[in-house]
Amino acid sequence: MPGSDDVALWVRELGSFRTRAKARKHLERCGPAAAEQVLPLLSDSSLPENVRWAAIMIVKAWGYAPAAPLLLAVVRAHSGLRGTAIQALEALTGLAIGYAPDEWEHALANPEAYRREHQEPGSLALADPSGEPDGCRLFRQALGNLATEITWEDDAYLYLRMPLEGSRKQQIVVTFSEVDAGGKPLTTMYTECGALRPDVVESIARRNVTARYGKFYTQKDDQGNDIVVMRETVPALRLTPKLARDIVLSIAAEADSLEFEMSGADHI
C-alpha cells in the first residue's frame, strides 16, 4: 500500500509533462486515500492548468463525490478547465446539466431530489393532449414571461420571438425531432443572423471561442446564398427550464449582435 511519501512524490510529479501520465495512473490506483493531497490541486489557481486538469481526471476516476463542490468552483472560475470539470461532475453525480453553474449548485444540494424533479427518463419525449411535444411546455415555463411570441408551428417546431435591448428582437426556432447515435432525443435551438459578409469571417471565429452557448455556422439559404446561423443542440433529458432560458437568451443576444455587425438592421 503506497504511503504518504509516495503520494506526495506522485503529486509533485504531476508538475512535469515527462512524469505526469505515470504519476496520474499511480494516484488513480491509490483511490480516495490520496484525496487529502490531491484535492487542494483543484482549487490552487497558482498551479499550471495541466496539473489541475490531471487532478480533475484523478477524482473523476475515483468517482469521488466529495470533490463535487471543488469541481463546481472550477466550472465557475476557469474557462480552460470548465469542460473537463463539467464532465467530471456528470460522472460523479450521474446528472447531465452542462454549463449552468447555478443549476449545478441547486442539484448538488440534493442530487437525488434533483434527479427525480428534473430528469425523469423520457420526460421530454412525450406529447401532451394538444399535440405539442412536452418540450414546448418546458420552454413556455422558461420563457413565458419574456418572449413576445411562443407558438407551435406546422406540427414541426416551436417559434420564439425574443425582445432585446434597443427595441430589437430575435427569432428562435426550437425542434425536438432529432436523436443522437443511441436514439435518445435531442432539442435544438436555432436562429438566423443574416447574409454572410466576407469581412466578418474572423469575427465569427472569435465569437465562437467566447460564446457561452451555441456556435455560428454558415449554410445556404433557399436561394443558394451564404447565410450565418447559430445553433445549440442539447440532450433532451439534460434540459431544464433554467438551462433552456439561459441558452435562448444567450444565443438571441449573440446572434443579434452579429446580425447588427453584418447589416446594421434588425431582421425577423
Can you describe what's shown?
By secondary structure, the chain is α+β, with helices and mostly antiparallel strands. It has 2 domains: 4-118; 134-263, Yope Regulator, Chain: A. It is built from 11 helices and 6 strands. The chain has helices at 4-13, 20-30, 35-43, 49-62, 68-77, 82-93, 101-109, 111-118, 134-143, 201-210, 241-263; strands at 149-153, 157-163, 169-175, 186-195, 215-220, 226-235. It has a 6-stranded antiparallel β-sheet with strand order 1-2-3-4-6-5. Mean pLDDT is 86; it is low at 119-129.
Question: Which descriptors apply to this entry?
Answer:
six-stranded antiparallel beta sheet; 268 residues; Yope Regulator, Chain: A; alpha+beta; elongated; 47% helix
Give the tally of β-strands.
6
CATH topology of the largest domain: Yope Regulator, Chain: A
The level-1 CATH class of the largest domain: Alpha Beta
Computed structural class: alpha+beta
What kind of assembly state do the chains in view correspond to? single chain
The share of residues in helices is 40-55%
Radius of gyration: 22 Å
Question: Largest sheet, if any?
Answer: 6 strands, antiparallel
Strand order of the largest sheet: 1-2-3-4-6-5
Percent strand equals 15-25%
H/I helix tally: 11
- Can you tell me the CATH architecture of the largest domain? 2-Layer Sandwich
Q: Low-confidence parts, pLDDT < 50 over ≥5 residues?
A: 119-129
N to C succession of SSEs: HHHHHHHHHEEEEHEEH
